[in-house]
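Title: Prediction job returns without error message
Component: structure pipeline
Severity: low
Priority: P3
Assignee: unassigned

Description:
Job completed but the reporter wants confirmation the result is attached to the right record. Sequence as submitted:
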Amino acid sequence: MLNAYWLYIVARKLYQWHIPIIPKIIKLLIFLIYNSAIPYTAKIGKGSRFGYGGIGVVVHNDAVIGVNCDIGSNITIGGKKGSNGVPAIGDNVELATGCRIIGNLKIGDNSIVGANAVVVKDVPSNVVVAGVPAKIIKHIN
């Protein structure tokens, strides 16, 4: 099935090869098809997946997402007004539907962010966080 991730991969490769126009067209296509903003300048690792094709996902231009991440629908990964820096998400992270990752922070490897959680500070590796603002509710062994 066509997924916003595959379109992102094509746009990213073209951007890395310094082809100027086509990545912008693909970014617009992602917006029109999936109502998502997934820029080719963001770094999304191999094996990452967008739930439901990536519907409603907003990713900051400079965000870094690790390998094998599961990204649900209606997620925002963005900066914080008046602050420099954007989120860096580790490997094997699961972001449940509707969560918000805001500001200059890091989410550790193998962590899970619960549905509709709002993450505004660093999350260590191997934990489950949930709530507004997100708090650790479980350690994963």
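Comment from assignee: result matches the submitted record. The two ends are 34 Å apart (CA to CA).
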